[in-house]
Design a protein that fits this description.
alpha/beta; Spore Coat Polysaccharide Biosynthesis Protein SpsA, Chain A; four-stranded mixed β-sheet; 22% strand
Length: 348
């Protein structure tokens, strides 16, 4: 809940229209339409968010109706329980295998990221799909713009300056400290781990059988179209990320360096940096009066917000909570959330 008080336990950031009118989830689906038809897109979500996601898909269909006449649209799959990314991906892979065959490419995209350069994004994804189609497991690494300590990194197997072509993955690196992050950026061999993938289904199945059979085989034995059978498979496996289960162990992984305006929108400062600004550098949502203030983020919608004589602050107003912070301190929202949890507050 790094975007508290707007983001809550029952309203994660992917279900919020942070920048623009559509939610991050809706934008994730929409920007893929030129490459992946809505009837071939699936959203895997938890029980807590299922109804909200259905409503968002319905809204998206009203905005972007299927002109081909197909009755199917984006399918929403209810995950029986949260067990990190590997079980969800294995479930999707088994569905994909049975529906389309083992030579199909499965795209996996988080729904809580922001992409600002959509043409570049589609070009990069197209390259990833093509490489995966050769029988590989492809991930997308973001060319770092600064020494970020909040992301994992991917080391590229290359002896020259990186282009936008696929490279063998040399290593996956955990979140570094500041000194290491600075070294990674200078080396030009490290990319931010975006968590986006293009998997050749046959290759993913083969590698998963070999590298993590205890997690994959329950899905191999289940019927991926029967909720009861899928739940049995989930009950048999431990939580595990796809990075740890497969990608960090396989020798079939390629990475494509990418620059398409990617952000995981991890703080209110990120929202500010990514949003359009007025002549004084202010970003605002909702009704406001701004006097003699600059470089501020004012996010409301419930009532008028008046700001006088402020600089570089975030003011986030919701029905039951108000956050005021210097923009460069908004990552400390996690401290507020921790205190609210300690108090047993209902504001989280």
């Amino acid at each position: 809940m790094r975007l508290w008080p707007l983001s809550r336990q029952k309203l994660p950031k992917q279900l919020l229209p942070l920048i623009g009118e559509r939610t991050l989830l809706q934008e994730t689906c929409r920007r893929l339409f030129p490459l992946i038809h809505p009837q071939d897109q699936w959203i895997i979500t938890g029980k807590s968010y299922y109804t909200q996601v259905i409503e968002m898909v319905t809204s998206l269909r009203n905005q972007f109706p299927d002109e081909t006449g197909e009755h199917k649209y984006i399918e929403v799959l209810k995950e029986p329980m949260a067990k990190n990314t590997a079980p969800a991906i294995f479930w999707a892979a088994r569905r994909c295998q049975q529906m389309y065959g083992e030579d199909t490419v499965l795209m996996v995209l988080p729904s809580d990221h922001l992409i600002t350069m959509e043409n570049e994004f589609l070009e990069t994804i197209h390259k990833g799909i093509a490489k995966a189609g050769e029988g590989y497991l492809v991930t997308f690494g973001i060319k770092p713009t600064h020494p970020e300590t909040g992301y994992g990194y991917i080391k590229v197997d290359a002896n020259q300056a990186l282009s936008n072509e696929p490279y063998l993955v040399a290593d996956f690196v955990e979140k570094p400290d500041q000194i290491k992050a600075q070294e990674y950026v200078k080396s030009d061999k490290y990319l931010w781990n975006s968590g986006m993938f293009a998997f050749h289904i046959g290759a993913l199945i083969e590698e998963s059988r070999k590298l993590c059979p205890e997690i994959f085989e329950p899905f191999l034995l289940c019927d991926p179209f029967k909720p009861d059978s899928v739940e049995i498979a989930y009950n048999q496996v431990k939580p595990q990320s796809i990075d740890f289960a497969v990608m960090e162990q396989t020798d079939q992984a390629f990475v494509i360096p990418a620059s398409f305006g990617w952000s995981d929108v991890g703080s209110w400062q990120s929202v500010f940096e990514l949003s359009p600004k007025d002549l004084e550098g202010n970003v605002f949502y909702g009704e406001q009066i701004i006097i003699d203030s600059k470089d501020c983020l004012i996010y409301g919608g419930h009532r008028l917000i008046a700001v006088v004589g402020m600089e570089a602050v975030a003011i986030i107003d919701t029905a039951d909570a108000l956050l005021i912070s210097p923009l460069n301190e908004t990552q400390r929202v996690k401290e507020i959330v921790e205190e609210l949890q300690r108090r047993g507050s209902g504001c989280i």
